[in-house]
Amino acid sequence: MPPPSPITVVLARFDDLLARGLQELIEGDSSLAIVARDVEHRRISVVLRAHRPDVAILEVGAFAKFAEIRQLSGQYPATRLVMLGDDPSMAECAQLLAFGASACLGRSTQSRDVLNAVHLASRGLQVMPRAPSDTGATPIPQGRLLTQREAEVLPLLQQGRSNAQIAVTLHVSVETVRTHARNIYRKLGVSSRRELAAPPTPDPSQQTRSVSSPPGHRATTLLAHTRRQRGAAHR
Fold this sequence. Notes:
alpha/beta, two-stranded parallel sheet
């Protein structure tokens, strides 16, 4: 029986230390194969079209609008997008997943959890940290982040509900719904409700998972992984 094909991975451009950590981590897993690395943001779509990878690990900060993530997800549905940012909050991660990402991780995520997220995402599961840190994190610019109420309105718009139906559901006025909808369109870079069409509903078994190492596991972050590997090379 032939061995299973490896999960193919594309790595976007990250700072040198983080890029080395990701590369070494993935190359150390025989079930993963990097097909392209250090990909500039402007070339992401071209590379995804050329390689059709199972997973793409992308830098959150490189995206000016979350609409770009939704667009990539729609253009390349077979490629799962793993978003890596500066320790995003739970709210930020939830919105990234709502906009088409398969996983949301912070730079301080443990190496073992990064690999776990890649494997889960490749199977069509959504992954987010169990408890990402908000302290000292670099937040996503407020202009891109939906308010709590806008985040409640978004899935209802995606389901094709009318303003009146949303108003009844959320116990607000129709005019308030219109205002929230306009803000959502502006922040996502879309111009109509049709562009917010919800992605295909996942399998019942494809639930959102959270990643965290088991109690007692010695934590090794991506950066620590790189430093440890470099130290071993010099010994």
